[in-house]
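Quick one, tokens below:
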């Protein structure tokens, strides 16, 4: 598993069948080798992370005050709270510990 499978927002894409079958580029693939143009990306979270060379919002020191990520996590739906929980877990425990847990999930989020 690589950090490519962790979305900028905290979603875990390692369980995604479409990504595994290479039918989806996820939010990160292609930018590292300039096959995709970040200026054409619509996701503000992705643009921010990739422009700042972050693996995810967990690498950002400003997540508690970032209006973009705050608004994203405040959206209705269980998954947004779980993505926030993922970023907080990574901040406190690191990517390796997150990957150990996430590899047991069947969705883009799970239990810690």
């Amino acid at each position: 598993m690589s950090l490519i499978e962790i979305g900028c927002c905290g979603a875990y894409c390692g369980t995604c069948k479409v990504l595994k079958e290479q039918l989806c580029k996820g939010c990160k693939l292609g930018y590292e080798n300039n096959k995709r143009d970040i200026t054409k990306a619509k996701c503000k979270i992705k643009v921010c992370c990739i422009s700042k060379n972050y693996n995810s919002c967990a690498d950002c020191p400003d997540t508690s005050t970032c209006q973009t990520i705050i608004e994203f996590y405040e959206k209705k739906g269980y998954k947004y709270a779980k993505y926030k929980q993922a970023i907080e877990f990574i901040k406190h425990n690191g990517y390796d510990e997150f990957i150990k847990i996430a590899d047991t999930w069947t969705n883009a989020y799970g239990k810690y």
